[in-house]
Design brief:
Elements lengths: L1 H11 L4 H8 L3 H8 L8 H11 L3 H5 L16 H12 L4 H16 L2
Helix pairs in contact: 1-3, 2-4
Pfam families: HTH_3 (PF01381), SinI (PF08671)
Organism: Paenibacillus swuensis
GO molecular function, one term: DNA binding
Length: 112
């Protein structure tokens, strides 16, 4: 779980595994094992180095994005849409990239 979040943040920053390992001052092999969930119990020092290199908090790495309370979600919202947006967020796509994708898709549909 932590490894997948590290990978998502790394990819959203457009960093290779080698680049992140170098920036964080950690072994590339250890980082790779973390991302593949082979190693699942990192030290706090490792997490602090990775978080600093990714410009996120250790809490961001440890805790998944929380689903809003049911009172915060539109009751008419299709759960699959919510899940799709959550997956986009977890993959590291920025709001701007998502918006550009939607605008391009709308433009493409209008110009068929």
């Amino acid at each position: 779980m932590i490894g997948q979040r590290i990978k998502n943040y790394r990819l959203s920053k457009k960093l290779s595994l080698s680049e992140l390992a170098e920036r964080a001052g950690v072994a590339k092999s250890y980082l790779s094992n973390m991302e593949r969930d082979i190693q699942t119990n990192p030290s706090i020092q490792f997490l602090e180095k990775i978080a600093d290199a990714l410009d996120v908090t250790v809490d961001d790495l440890l805790n998944p994005i929380q689903k809003p309370e049911s009172s915060e979600v539109d009751p008419d919202m299709d759960p699959q849409w919510y899940e799709l947006v959550r997956e986009a967020m977890n993959s590291g796509i920025s709001k701007e990239q998502f918006k550009e994708f939607l605008e391009f898709t709308q433009w493409k549909m209008n110009n068929k």
